[in-house]
Amino acid sequence: MNRRYRRNPDLILEWGSEHDGVVLVDSRTLRRFAVKRTLLGVLNRMSAPVLPGELALEDGAAPGPQETEALLARLAEAGIVEPVDDAQVVDDPPNPTPPELAVHALAARGGIARSRLDEVDIPPARLRHREASEVIPLPAGEGDSRPLRELLRSRTSIRDFAETPVGSAELGRFLGDSARVRGWLGPDRLQATRRPSASGGGRHSLEIYVLARAVADLPPGAYHYDPFAHQLAKLQPWDAELDDLQHRLICRPTLTEHPPPVSIYLAAYHQRVRWKYGGMTLSLIYRDTGCLLQTMYLVATDLGLAPCATAAVEPQASPEFLRPYREDVVHVANFALGNPADSAPTSPDFRPLNGARP
User: Fold this and answer.
1) Distance of CA 161 to the CA centre of its chain
2) Shared domain check, 57 and 186
3) Residue 43 sits in a domain of what CATH number?
4) Domain co-membership, 252 together with 123
5) Are 283 and 101 spatial neighbours (Cβ–Cβ below 8 Å)?
6) pLDDT digits (tens, 9 = 90+) for 29-84
7) pLDDT for the residue 165
8) Structural domain of 308
């Protein structure tokens, strides 16, 4: 009777249907348990280890020792509670958190059977902002590239930018080399495309929004990059809202006072992935984001531009230019772009490993 028990720290509480009531989900195994309200009251008092004799029902009544021990044994067998040794550290919250563990567990599950492909309404791979006030074609920006090995050695985050604008040809080449659609994959109805960066299933959910503060021959404002036509759709002129957005998502995370000439706001059109991968959706979007950011880094390095990604994200997309799409997209990352400053006061010192090639 001296054994202590605590609630499984990896449980997540979900609201079930009218018939299921409250549901507990083990975020590691994704097992689901429909539980009664009385049991929730007991579990609520088990965030720290307790002895069976310390438990009582919500109305204050205490079951007998044998009944309590039997209940806890059943709950432990199911994985809802767990026995705890006195020497075990139990005060620290689980790390990762239960929601993070649940996303990780879902990353290996999902997808629909090929036999059901004909039953699915597949979202288009191209997002058209028909409300745009202007469409601006981008220059192709052809040119020679440096060797890949050299780019990999030179790639770094640069947080200090010169005051000179980014050239429109440079911006065009940056977007074209890092994100332009190269062609279709498979039947047209599958809406899978090939682009410079990898994407699970060729879904490519990421939409690129360019906050152009200082770009030669381009009016300041917010633009959507159309990777099919290699053009920008103007969505909003530069205003105080874009100033604030750039400071919140670029300047504060990088600890710099001066904003870059160009900021990229990456938003994932999640239904483009969800229809095929279900519970794996968020995990795949994050992986795709990493692939695109690395591609952007290498292209920017090739062009001699200063790149820097930031991971500050908004729970819901706040820009006014995304108001009609807020239920359809999730904000996933940002990318700063400009010409490197002559000095870099916010860059950390770099110390090569002994014997390593520079």
Assistant:
1) 26
2) no
3) 3.90.930
4) yes
5) no
6) 889 998 887 788 888 888 888 888 887 655 555 566 677 888 888 999 999 999 98
7) 97
8) 114-338
